[in-house]
TrEMBL record:
InterPro entries: FAD/NAD-bd_sf (IPR036188), Flavin_mOase-like (IPR020946), FMO-like (IPR050346). The keyword RNA-binding does not apply. Its cofactor is FAD. It comes from Mytilus coruscus (Sea mussel). Its EC number is 1.-.-.-. The lineage of its organism: Eukaryota, Metazoa, Spiralia, Lophotrochozoa, Mollusca. Keywords: FAD, Flavoprotein, Monooxygenase, Oxidoreductase. It is an enzyme of class 1 (oxidoreductase). It comes from the Eukaryota. This is Flavin-containing monooxygenase.
Amino acid sequence: MTYGDIRKKNDIHTEEFGDVIMCLGNCSTPNYPTIDGEQNFEGFVLHSIRYRHPECFAGQTVAVLGAHYSGLDISFDLSKCAKKVYLCHRGPKLETCLPENIVQRTSGFQRYTPFSVVLENGEELSVDTVIYATGYKYNFSILPEGLLKVGKEGSAKLPDQEEMNRIISKDSERVIGGDNQWEWIKELSDISGNSKALPPVMKKIWDYHFDIWGKDFAKCRLLVYKATGPDSFALV
């Protein structure tokens, strides 16, 4: 394995290891949606991974696509400086308290015009900037091609093809989210045969957090800030 400190010039080392753990995370390769007309949009388009400071958008009308962790956090941050923030998402209307200049739209983007975005419900929003809070893709390009394969020289035993097709068909009929992910995690634990499911206290913490999050996101942010400090809101 060859590695080095990218902050230092020519810092290259090569060693042999029996095992290597890749702690890459899944928040490094942005997932960009494909939306008609984006190339003709005269405003600014960026992914949430590039968002830093709300002052850059002072006086602007900004559309944020996606209303999960990054989308909500960025929208609240923008509301301090932006003229208006459209929080666009396909889910049900969020019941949490929002600042007056954040406007929810429960619709995704259909297409761009030079100075606006047209939503899937037909509404047209005149905006200066669009921020995609649309998540990330898993990226294992750092590994040699063909190295990462399920079951290769591992202890996991795959079901037969008929059983795998049955599981795929069943899973495609449900959406894994905050409410039912605990059942999903337990299933994965049972399938693997050699890992433990998360302890029940983790679900209690999660449920408490989302109870506050759903009622008053600003209060939830304050609790996290007090518990972890200002660095917890450094979006990098």
